[in-house]
Amino acid sequence: MTDDSTLDTPQIQEEETELYEHHRIVVDKGQEMLRLDKYLQMRLEGISRNKIQAAVKAGCVLVNGVVTKSNYKVKPCDELVVLLPEPPHQFETLPEPVDFPIVYEDDDVLVVNKPAGLVVHPAYGNWSGTLLNGLLYHFQGCKGKDGSPVEPYLVHRIDKDTSGLLLIAKNENAQVVLAKQFFDHTIERKYNALVWGSFDEDQGTIVGNLERSPQDRRVMHVTDDPERGKNAVTHWRVLERFGYVTFIECVLETGRTHQIRAHMQHIGHPLFNDAAYGGDRILKGTTFSKYKQFVENNFELLPRQALHALILGFEHPTTGEHLHFESPLPPDMSVVLDRWRNYTHSSQ
User: Fold this and answer.
1) In the prediction, which pLDDT does 91 show?
2) Where on the phi/psi map is residue 268: left (φ > 0), alpha (ψ -120 to 50), or beta?
3) What per-residue confidence (pLDDT) applies to 192?
4) pLDDT of residue 19
5) For 178, phi and psi rounded to 5 degrees?
6) Out of 3.40.50.2000, 3.10.290.10, 2.40.128.110, 3.40.50.300, which CATH number does the structure's domain 20-85 have?
7) Cβ distance 262 to 210 under 8 Å?
8) Superfamily of domain 190-309+329-347, CATH level 4
9) What residues are labeled active site?
10) Which portions of the chain are predicted below pLDDT 50?
11) Residues near 340 by Cβ (< 8 Å), separated by ≥ 6?
C-alpha cells in the first residue's frame, strides 16, 4: 500500500507510518508461463529476486487471492497482489556519527530509543545528521550472515519530535517479514501522551479516516467521507488526570501519518505543546497570570509535542520469538508531568 506521505513531500514529518508499496498486477493475456519470482522481477523495476522470494515466503504475494510459492507458474489473466517494503531512497545517504541509544541488536534487527529532535531519514531540509546517517555509520564494516555488508532497512518511522522506540531491519528478508507484521497490524505499539482537557470516560476508541488537510498540507485531519483518506484506529486510556490536562496511553491499530496527534485534536484534546495541531497555547485553565506563567514554563521545559513511543513488540523475523521492549519516559516529559502533579496537588 503506497502511503501518500512519501519522501517527495518535504513539509510533513511522520508520526509513525508503515513503509510499504502495494502492487496489483494483472498478467497479460499473451504472457507465456513463467515462474512467479522471475515474472515479478521482470515487472517490478529495481527489486532483487532475493527480496521477491522473501516476500513470497512471508506471504506478501497473493495470486488470485491465494498465498503461493515462488515456483508457481504465472498464467495469463492471473491477478497478483504484492506487498513490498518501500524501495531505496532516490538520493545517496552518507554515514555520519550520530548519537542514539541502542536497546537491542542481533543479526536481523535493531531497536533504537530515538530521542526527540532526531529526524529518522534524510528529506528536504534535513539532508544530514539523521538516524539513517547514524545507522550507516554504525554498520560500517559489518557483514551479514551471508557475508554481504549490513545496511539499515526502515519498516516504520516516528516523527522528529516524538521520542521512543523504533525498529530497524538489517537485511531484506527481515524487512519484508516485519513489513508484513505492520501490514497485518500484529505489531504491538503503545504510546504515552499528555493532552489538553479532561475526559468524561476512562477509555475510548477513535475511528476516523485521515487525509491531508486542504487548508494546510503539513497536517492531517479526519474526513467524514468514508471513500477518502486512510482508515485509522486509536485506542486511548486515561492514566492520570490533572484537571486541565490528562496523561493518557494510546494503542495503535493502524500507523497513519500523525495519527495520534490528528485523532486527539479531532476529539478536542490536542497534545500538549503540539504546535502543528494547536496544542502550543493555553486551551484549558484559569486566566491568572501565575497559571499562564506555569504553562509557559512547561512549554519551555518540553519544547515539542508530549508524545513518547513507550512499547514495541514483534515476532522476530527469523526465530519467530516474540520480543517486547519498553522505553521509560524521557526527562522532558517526566519533569513536566511532575510539575502538573505538584500543581494539581497544591490547587486542591
Assistant:
1) 56
2) left
3) 98
4) 58
5) -70, -40
6) 3.10.290.10
7) yes
8) Pseudouridine synthase (3.30.2350.10)
9) 159
10) 1-17, 88, 90
11) 194, 242, 245, 247, 298
